[in-house]
């Protein structure tokens, strides 16, 4: 499905308890392969630096449940500059679109130093959109989001099942590449976040595998959780 030229996917999110997590992962591991980028059975580390405008529109629109909204983030894996992505995640009711383009370490370092002109070195539309939004809306770094992702792939239907663990918010720094970055756990208790991403429909085999109760589904935003944790810390 497409909207405004963007490929849309379903994204369903659930909180799961440690007991539910262990049961689910054991069933899933018997049927689906773990993401090839995983460093171990626990998955791989993701760190994202989210951006927002001076009015914190991305935070407010999410909390208000606005139909159409977007967020920019710079994402790295395993606290390395080997792969750096600028991503824009757009929400259209129950559908999500994600666009991405590669960045260099130099572009990121310049950006964090307040120099956005490095964004003009690429030809991707996403880079230009981000550059224009930075200039028009005083877009600025907002919060770092850290977690470990355990991901499983069903390649024929392009379905991804992920468990996000150890969600934490950066406290007082936007240094993406700092391995000693101070963070604060953003989810109370031992819960994990389960996400199921798919195209037009979720295959029956996956539905049966997950066996989730309807009441568990929720509108979780890792950005909002970490931003609110940051606000508590700074207050």
UniProtKB/TrEMBL annotation:
Source organism (scientific name): Paenibacillus plantiphilus
Highest taxon, organism lineage: Bacteria
Name under which the protein is recorded: VTC domain-containing protein
Chain segments annotated as transmembrane: none
Domain VTC: 9-225
Pfam families, per database record: VTC
């Amino acid at each position: 499905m497409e909207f405004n030229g963007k490929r849309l996917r379903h994204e369903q999110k659930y909180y799961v308890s440690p007991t539910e997590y262990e049961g689910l992962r054991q069933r899933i591991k018997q049927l689906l392969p773990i993401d090839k980028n995983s460093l171990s059975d626990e998955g791989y580390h993701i760190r994202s630096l989210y951006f927002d405008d001076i009015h914190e529109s991305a935070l407010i629109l999410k909390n208000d449940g606005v139909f159409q909204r977007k967020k920019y983030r710079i994402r790295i894996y395993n606290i390395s500059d080997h792969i750096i992505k600028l991503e824009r995640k757009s929400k259209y009711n129950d559908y999500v679109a994600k666009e991405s383009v590669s960045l260099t370490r130099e572009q990121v370092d310049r950006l964090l130093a307040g120099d956005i002109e490095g964004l003009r070195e690429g030809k991707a539309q996403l880079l230009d959109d981000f550059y224009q939004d930075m200039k028009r809306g005083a877009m600025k770094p907002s919060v770092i989001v850290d977690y470990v992702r355990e991901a499983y792939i069903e390649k024929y239907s392009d379905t991804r099942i992920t468990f996000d663990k150890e969600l934490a918010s950066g406290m007082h720094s936007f240094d993406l590449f700092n391995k000693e970055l101070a963070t604060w756990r953003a989810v109370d208790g031992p819960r994990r976040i389960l996400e199921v991403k798919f195209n037009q429909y979720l295959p029956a085999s996956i539905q049966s595998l997950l066996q989730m109760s309807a009441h568990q589904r929720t509108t979780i935003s890792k950005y909002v959780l970490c931003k609110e944790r940051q606000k508590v810390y700074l207050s």
